[in-house]
Design brief:
The complex is a heterodimer.
Chain A (H helix, E strand, L loop, with lengths): L1 H15 L1 E4 L5 E4 L30 H12 L3 H10 L6 H10 L4 E4 L4 H9 L4 E4 L5 E10 L2 E7 L7 E5 H10 L4 E4 L12 E5 L2
Helix pairs in contact in A: 2-3
Chain B lengths: L1 H30 L37 H11 L45 E3 L17 E7 L3 H12 L1 H9 L1 E6 L3 H7 L10 E6 L4 E6 L7 H24 L9 H5 L48 E4 H23 L3
Parallel strand pairs in B: 2-3
Antiparallel strand pairs in B: 2-4, 4-5
The chains are: A alpha+beta, B alpha+beta.
Chain lengths: 203, 342
Amino acid sequence: MKGFSRAIATAFLLLLVTGCLPEQSVQVRPLPAPPAERPVANLPPQLHQRNWTGRLNQGSCVHASLVNHLRWLNEFELGERWRATYSDGEWDTRLRNRLDAAGIDYSYTVKADPRFLDWANATRRGAILWWKPAHCCTFVGWVERNGQQYAAILDNNYPGRFELTPREQFVRLWAGYGGFALTVVEDPASSLPYRSYEVIDEG
Amino acid sequence: MKDEIRIRLSVGLIVVAVLHAVLLGAVFTALHRTPKPQENDEWRLPTARPVPQVGRQIEKLPEPAQVNMEAQGELKQQSGYCPPSCPPVVRPTIRPYRVVPARPVVQPATPSPTVVPAPTVPAPIIVTPTNSNGNAVPQSSPKRYQIALFVGNDAKSRQLLDWFNKNAKLSKLRKSCEFQVYTESNALYKTRFADIVPASQFPVVLFQDSSGGHVHAAGYTMLPSTPAELYDDLRYGYELYQQTRQAQKTGALKSRGYSWDSAISPTLQLSPEDCPDGYCPIEPTEPTWRPFDRDRDREPLFDRDSDGRNALIWAGAGELATLALIVVAIILLGFILIKRGM
């Protein structure tokens, strides 16, 4: 009889220390994903900043590239302030000094290291870089085409389009132009949403 | 005597059954209680923030000290920067390739124009950017999830922003994800999201994976009234999303065309000869899970028990009901045995 009482007491005790989990009665299934957005930093053409002439009658390609980059990072106000503050020619050390002065976090390379661009592509941020003689453009990501990888470039002299150059050639030329690239370390624009799953059975 | 016991037992059974039914009903009601969407009659459609007027005064950024503008001009002329009027696409004059040392080399302010035979560089391929709304997915990024808030000027929107700034759990979640806030006047919103997330639904919380696949989306009336409820909703969406991923990972779900062959094919190994200029192309990355892969990116976004509740055993509602029935059965059995004088 004692054993029976103990068993009942144990059963009650077990019941007391039992937590209730929410029911998982909802069944879901994944929906097919649409094709990938290319390039990853797909700044809409309406937002492409064109190069402008500064007070010294020089092109402002570095600043235009940075403004494009900042726009993709949803930093519009910062981009406008940068545009209002700086113009004319620029070089990497002074650009970094100016970014430091503005309290902007960034990452950069001066070694034409393609892994930097891989990272800029993987994080969907893109970068600005020395591209074409005495010119600066915005790198908007790698693009696969016919089994080959191309660098997609937004040239601020030709807004509204991207220029594709095969990867190996691009890296070679980039090294020749100085090998500088810089990325502002902020979250990029959100991806275009799509419905990834649906509920198939509830209840 | 026996009849009396039977009657008593029957009455007792009925009482216990009624009690049991009431308790079960209470448990299931508590479990299935869903918060009703908060209809706010005072809420009005968010008005767009005033668009900055053309030519308005923009606050300048703090500039570094000691900028010699004259020297800048001189350097600029030497470096041969092209103003926009110059023909921008030219056949580039390439300097000899430099061996890049391990130490970072600072680009000289005055690059010396070295004359070398100009190699023929094929013109780049020109593509026009397209914004294929709803049909595009970007590649994966180190942060595996994204949160986008679409807000207006209303109180609910401000409250939503406050939640993500001040609530500990939501703030932690925000830091684990790529986080962006869009308003109706935001240029990126207008060009990328206006068709997908209509302003009439603001405020909206969009929780998605790195490719844009939605994990949880709630807007306007579907938003809960407390940050804790929103966090729970996000966690629930995450669990459903994980459920689909588990099915894909284990191959239990065939709808995505899971290929065993492609999953176990060896990764391409590159030899130095394959790497032009010493730069190896990136090894192909297989985003899909392979059998026996470690779950390296599966660090959960949400704690398993986020409410701080503790229990020795966790059971579902059905399991709890079974346990309760067993206990009732044991009690009844005991009662009968005691009455029989055992």
